[in-house]
Amino acid sequence: MSLSTARGFTTARPGEDWAAIAARVLPDEAPAAAVERLKSWNLHLFMRQPTGQFLGSDVIFTSPPAATQAPS
Questions:
Q1: What is the DSSP letter of 7?
Q2: DSSP letters spanning 44-70
Q3: Quick check: 41 and 63 in contact, CB under 8 A?
């Protein structure tokens, strides 16, 4: 059994919101699309109340989940 590649992640810097994180980690994408992509990969944060607030300990995924293969 081999180890899988780790999923990309970051943590929020002080004062960052979804738009600031998206601009930092997905600079080549349109801003609105980058925010939506990040939210879809981070439902555990997107659903938090109040919305848009991050803790310094939050793990923010910057890449999609790895595709899994069904066991044979």
A1: P
A2: HHHT-SSTT---TT--EE-SPPPP---
A3: yes
3-state secondary structure of 9: strand
Mean per-residue pLDDT over the chain, rounded: 88
Is-contact 64 41, C-beta < 8 A?
A: yes
Both structure tokens of 47: 């659903």
Q: What is the pTM of this model?
A: 0.81
pLDDT 10s digits, 21-69: 999 999 999 999 999 999 999 998 988 877 778 988 999 999 998 876 5
Quote the CA–CA distance of 59 and 21 in Å, as a whole number: 12
Q: Between the CA of residue 61 and those of 1, 12, 70, 71, what are the distances in Å?
A: 25, 11, 23, 26
